[in-house]
Amino acid sequence: MRSFKVSKLFAIFVTVSILSTSSATAEDSKSEFNGKLLPPAQGQFQITFNQGADGNFGERYSAQVKPSDVFDPTRELPNYRAILPACLLPTDLTCIESIESKKVNEAVWKKGSLSTNQLDVGKVKVSESQPKWREYGTWKADPLTGKPAGGVASSWDLAATPHKEGVSYLAIVQFQASLLDNQNAFNPELGFSELNGMIQPWSWKCAESGFCDWLGSAVAKNDATSVFPPNTEFRITVRTNFLGSKIGSWMVGRLEKPTIKFDSEKLVIAGKPVSYPMGFLNFKSREECASKIESVMTKYFPRAPRTCSPPSSGFSTNSNDDVALPLFDVLDGEVTQNGEVENWTFSNGRKSNRIAVCSDPKNFSLATSNAMLYSVNPPVWDKDSSTLSYRIASTHLDRKSELNKGNYSLVISKKLADCLWNFDTAKASAEISITSSEGSRNIAVSAMRTSTDWIYFDASGFTFSAPEIKVKLINKAATTETKTITCVKGAKLKKVSGLKPKCPTGYKAKK
Questions:
Q1: pLDDT tens-digit series, residues 15-71
Q2: CA 197 to CA 394: how far, in whole Å?
Q3: How far apart are CA 281 and CA 400, in angstroms?
Q4: Longest Cα pair distance anywhere in the chain, in angstroms?
Q5: Do 155 and 170 form a contact (C-beta atoms < 8 A)?
Q6: What is the pTM for the complete model shown?
Q7: Order of strands, edge to edge, in the sheet holding 483-489?
């Protein structure tokens, strides 16, 4: 298979702030391969990127691994995965209040209704490969311990925006955390925590036929069609309640031109779904694999055996994994795009509660892109240049040998922006430049949007030949402030106004 030249990582230096996540596979999700990716031949070793959804998205049932007195070295540490249920009563806590959709050119959102068919954890058939100590079930929210409600992914009908197999969409909002003595131990030092959300086109055709135990199936994508209907936006409203303080300060997502509302009780996120690249690389030998990636893999998996050694013949990663970006970096342009995957997702990361500058615990920043990969770490604030730096990466060419065109959006709370730039950013303008690695201007469209509590930056149309995007907020109030001086020439007086007023020839400024 032909190997295309790809981009090296490019840095996005922004005057604002951003987000992050992790990775896994849904229990009964369909394969999302659409580029006819073949397994490695004998002796080869294969690296893949994004062959499924980013992060731990797509899990549909709540589960717990409870503390145990039985010694089992294979047993996970106590933890839970709470799939937030649909809100049925005004008093329900930590649940999905609504799912809405609309066409891009429409002004009014249309609310979805809960589908007649719904998932049932009682009908889940757990495979023999699943650990026996993982218990599936449901439970109520517990404000005293901080444990959110555990339900199942909810199915919603959005009649105004049908997809190719119907009007149903699965809403999946998941909160994961560690358990300590059956209590929620939300402590980065003791365990992990993560919130993520996904809207997924869903089909109940198999349920109508009675062949799938009312579990339904994800709508698959092929080369000719999109999973989602074109030019459609989706919006989700989640009652965060006591989870509001646990979301953290940093998120990433697969949303185009997102908007956000967030307070102590509710999180509202909207945007278009995003199609982004899947990629792969086949090493001709295990020796070649080891020489190029073992140093990276050892750093991120110090207790794991050598990655390239038998019996393993491949390694798969997603853009929300810590190792994905460094792994792509050392492969130095050898990754080939084999297809695209389309998703509507958002997620905080396990490191999202750590922010060095102007921490705003009541808000977070969000970065979204159609790049193959993005950094899972929050952006780095550069005090000298008053910018935030962030990294994303993608192949230079798509699987049709055409240029990949990038889009990028950044959402930051106004409170955080005011703190970083030390002025009222409601009066700001954005200074934007996009430059390729060769120093040439990279053609792109960029815009800045504002609301009462949020600032949005969007860039699109740039290529992945290692461009550098720099955004800087400029205080228009300061730059437009004029001064007036009095100039003297003998008995004559003259007042001169301007940003930097100067007396005309023959006049001197009056002291």
A1: 332 222 333 333 333 333 455 678 888 888 999 998 876 666 778 999 998 888 888
A2: 23
A3: 17
A4: 101
A5: yes
A6: 0.82
A7: 492-498, 483-489, 508-509
